Amino acid sequence: MESDKIIEGELMKQGARGPVKTWKKRFFKYSPSDHKLRYYEGSKEKGYINLDSVKNITKDDGLSCEFQIITESRTYNLRGFTKVQLMYWVDNLSKLCGINKEEDEDENDKKIDNKKKEINKNNNNNNNEK
Known about the structure:
The structure is a single chain. By secondary structure, this protein is an alpha+beta fold. Helices cover 34% and strands 35% of the residues. The protein is built from 2 helices and 7 strands. It has a 7-stranded antiparallel beta sheet, covered by helices on one side. The radius of gyration is 20 Å and the shape is globular. The relative contact order is 0.14. The model has no long low-confidence stretch (mean pLDDT 83).
């Protein structure tokens, strides 16, 4: 992906302060010059996420359109309005941050396969002992 690609749109962002974490609509825009995802309320910039500090991006597998951007200092809870929008953000941000979801899934598949082999081996050993 080109680092100067325009990535922008509205998302719901969960607040980080206070006892009640409310969801507020924010406009997000990727700034390629400093590799930050800036968010706005109207025309006023409210903050940014430094994409250089992103450790992981996760999404809920359920019916919600929520995803998390996990940085060194904070986890940002965000929500799209549709599944298509959710995938747009997760895919584009993962690429920008150098997080390869396919490799992660392949690694998880390998771990599951190894665990299954280990269980089968243990079961076979237990059957042989009888």
